[in-house]
Specification:
This protein is about 50% helix and about 10% strand. It is α/β, with parallel strands linked by helices. The strands form two sheets. Strands 1-9-6-4-2-3 form a six-stranded parallel sheet, with helices on both faces. β7 (about 155-160) and β8 (about 165-170) form a beta hairpin. α14 (about 360-370) crosses α15 (about 380-390). The longest helix has 23 residues, at about 215-235. It is globular and about 65 Å long.
Length: about 400
Amino acid sequence: MAVQEMVYGFFIPSVTLIGIGASKYIPEKIKALGGKKPLVVTDKGITACGLTKQITDLLDAAGMEYAVYDETVPNPTDHNVHQGVEVFKSKGCDSLISLGGGSSHDCGKGIGLVVSNGGKIHDYEGIDKSSKPLPPYLAVNTTAGTASEMTRFCIITDTSRKVKMAIVDWRVTPGMAIDDPMLMVGMPPALTAATGMDALTHAVEAYVSTIATPMTDACAQKAIELIAKYLRKAVANGKDLEAREGMCFAQYLAGMAFNNASLGHVHAMAHQLGGFYDLPHGECNAILLPHVSRANMNAKLERFVDIARFMGEVVDGLSLRAAAEKAIAAIQQLSTDVGIPPTITELAKRYGKQVDRKDIAIMTANAQKDACGLTNPRCLKDADVAAIYEAAF
């Protein structure tokens, strides 16, 4: 905690429903928020696997009108947001339901910001730039990782600059969130692994953040413990409902932690990899997390010892540094066990992308401007960030 005057905030949706069968309350809850004709914001993958119809069937059964925008891409763009705004207006919608993982929720938040506040999504890059509340907004989660269904963070790619804009605004926190493990059963192993490691990154970065509090510490600790216990099981068998529910709670707790303690340079740097190369966010985080953690270790040595313990490592009798190194090793081992590629180059090959070390200079400059880096426990210089990129490549 701070040793000087400082007031902490704690942001969270007014209501969250978590548990098997929670999704059946979607029509009731969007009505409770004041919505009469929601725009369902999702992506083609969610539609293709039948989840969009599953939700619209519930709306049909409740006699509720709606429209669907399912053009969201994995790293949602400014174009997605502005297209969604046009659909919202042309279809006469008055509320929002985002359905999916972080991409759908971030796009929904962006649409809501522009619908209510006007202008372009670029106007809201930074912290608390809006002046009006979003339309009634219900976020329905289908992954266990981003926690975007309950946060004040909205990450949108500026296609002209190839930069992921970090929008941090208390008004984009959804009015209600729904986390139903049954909607997550069909997640493939690779997505389960990527989103799970994203959640771990949220918890770790929040735990070592410069504005961590006892409240965020409690959330981060439990999230790390649950992820260490359940992520491997969820990846190995997606129908393991105990593991799915465990990860459901873990990612939400991690969201509670970072939504209020913020993040660090893992996210600041991962945003650039997503903006430049359209690489998946969770896997970028997983690859960067051990490298950034080692760079941060001297600033928060005792906290990394805690993280080692949370992940089940035995550290009794070890020096602080040796115990802290156990945390790095445990993070790396979990990442390996769930199939995350070891380097950015290998990740790019997996997705048919091309990466180039010549981009490190501009990505470093952009990462240093990212709002997520403001609460990193160590003040990293440009050379430090560039060296981490080099090691991760």
